[in-house]
Write a structure and sequence with these properties.
Helix 2 packs across helix 5, helix 2 packs across helix 9 and helix 7 packs antiparallel against helix 8. The longest helix is centred in the N-terminal third of the chain and has 39 residues. With about 375 residues, the chain is of the alpha+beta class. Strands 1-2-3-4-5-6 form a six-stranded antiparallel sheet, with no helix packed on it. The protein has two domains: about 220 residues, no CATH class; about 80 residues, Lipopolysaccharide (LPS) transport protein A like domain (lipopolysaccharide transport protein A fold), CATH 2.60.450. It is built from eleven helices and six strands. A hairpin with a 2-residue loop joins strand 5 and strand 6.
Length: about 375
């Protein structure tokens, strides 16, 4: 990398760190004042308040980091243009595309870093953050540890559980029935009815019950058992799983949820959209960098730094509107999940490339 490219990259990183730090700080301060009353009214410890916002930082970064790229790009390039540094570089035969390549490269690196963070860090910290706020501060019941009644659960292999009472702490079922279906026809093949079932660490053991072998026209045979283990796919964790918030789910977890929903014959469209949104949102940084580079150079010719920042904020709002509209159309079934999340990104990438190619033109559109 040449000295000029390292110089531009250094200026951009400094501006970006200040920008994202300022936005995250503003978010924490504003959100902190809004939630402070509830922490005080619930007599929560100061440590809970501090831990909550410490755990919330990855979640805030995942949303603020891509948006900060546009502001940092505009400020960096507008400053260089105002100081006539761009003019001097172009006089030396260095093209605009070559000089702005470090910004695009850093934006791509940032996008990949956010994908990794959203996969391994944000889901864990968001889950702990919600636990601190909902369970410790607000006093809500931890549903994952609460006994549950009258459960109906469809297994990944098509079997159906009917459980009158389930204790997730003891991994104990009472009044349990398990229906296994014929893979070739919609008939029940086996039916297990037991007084109770207990997880022994490796499999479920059923106590005091009957196993009935059924055929199309009725019961073929039945057998009583006092204690017997039957092969099943489900483990205790599967019976205490609750619907997670999108920020608490990794892309792998979302994909596994989709596979399970499709096996059970459920509509997985909404989860597909959430998955594509989770993967596409970090790459907004690349989109906004491509838009911000020509935008900052064009606007710096017509106004000062504040004018450039104002233009960038308007552009960011317009992109956010299109992105949110695409996701909304996806939920309503107008767009496919991939088009809903990636379509606005591809549209603005095309606009950004066009503006880069026409950056030396005084007019935005050719005549």
């Amino acid at each position: 990398m040449s000295i000029l490219k390292r110089y531009i990259l250094g200026q951009f990183i400094k501006t970006y760190v200040l920008t994202v730090g300022g936005l995250v700080g503003m978010f924490v301060v504003i959100d902190g004042f809004e939630r402070l009353d509830e922490f005080v009214s619930k007599s929560a410890d100061v440590s809970d308040f501090l831990i909550y916002y410490f755990l919330k930082i990855p979640f805030i970064l995942s949303y603020m980091a891509p948006q900060s790229v546009l502001v940092a790009t505009v400020i960096t390039l507008a400053t260089l243009s105002r100081n006539n540094e761009f003019t001097a570089m172009k006089a030396c035969g260095i093209g605009v595309t070559g000089l702005t390549l470090p910004i695009i490269s850093f934006s791509a690196f940032l996008a990949l870093s956010l994908v990794i963070c959203n996969e391994f860090v944000t889901p864990v910290t968001s889950q702990k953050m919600n636990y601190v706020y909902n369970i410790k501060v607000r006093g809500a019941v931890d549903q994952s540890k609460q006994a549950r009644d009258r459960l109906w659960i469809r297994s990944g292999n098509g079997s159906i559980w009917n459980i009158n009472y389930y204790d997730p702490v003891k991994a104990l079922m009472r009044g349990v029935s398990l229906y296994t279906f014929d893979p070739n026809r919609p008939d029940i093949r086996h039916r297990i009815d037991a007084e109770s079932a207990l997880w022994n660490g490796q499999q479920w053991e059923f106590f005091n019950g009957y196993i009935r072998f059924l055929k199309h026209d009725g019961v073929d045979s039945a057998r009583y058992f006092k204690r017997e283990a039957f092969p099943t796919l489900e483990k205790p964790a599967d019976f205490k799983k609750l619907q997670k918030r999108p920020e608490e789910m990794s892309a792998r977890y979302m994909y596994e949820t989709i596979q399970k929903q499709e096996k059970e014959g459920l509509d997985s469209t909404r989860t597909w959209i959430d998955l594509h949104q989770k993967l596409s949102y970090p790459f907004i940084s690349v989109v906004l960098a491509l838009i911000g580079i020509p935008l900052s150079i064009r606007s710096s010719r017509k106004g000062g730094l504040l004018f450039c920042v104002w233009i960038s904020l308007v552009t960011g709002f317009i992109f956010s509107f299109f992105y949110a509209m695409g996701i909304s159309f996806g939920y309503k079934g107008v767009f496919s999940p991939a088009l809903a999340a990636w379509g606005p990104c591809l549209l603005f990438i095309c606009i950004g490339f066009y503006m880069l190619l026409t950056i030396d033109s005084e007019k935005l559109l050719p005549t």
